[in-house]
TrEMBL record:
Entry's family note: Belongs to the SufE family.
Every Fe-S metabolism associated domain range: 27-143
Superkingdom assignment: Bacteria
Protein name, as recorded: Cysteine desulfuration protein SufE
UniProt cross-references to InterPro entries, sorted A to Z: Fe-S_metab-assoc_dom (IPR003808)
Gene3D superfamilies given in the database record: 3.90.1010.10
Protein source organism: Andreprevotia lacus DSM 23236
Pfam families xref list: SufE
Amino acid sequence: MSETAMSNPYAHPFGTTVDRDALSQRLLAAGGWEAKSRLLVQLARDLPPLPDADKVDANRVSGCESTVWLVTRWEGGKLQVAADSDSRVIKGLLTLLLTAYHNQDAATIQQFALEAWLTELGLVRFLSASRGNGVRAIARRIVSESQQPHG
């Protein structure tokens, strides 16, 4: 991982060089849950960890069984999203959410049909209730952040 990514948790490829369509194609080609899970865990390795200073209660996402931290900022009219988790599988699922939401404008974030996308990818049937609820809680938090006033 580059020094820039280590010092800047927003400097990850998800939602920029790794886009939603490309990731969708890779997941659809992966087949069953084991192959999809393996791919997500591999992608999670490219997600830089959040600095310890960002791993505070104010940044924790409620509704997740695992610990998940989420930080956002606006840059050029687009929401920059960085996230981390203490769970490898959840960190892999974070890469999915980041391809959908990172570096997007508010309207795109608010109109994105997450459930339909997860169903299309064949992930809904493989997610446990707690993981599914966690993914939805993270997405709700990102959508909520996109609705906040920004300059």
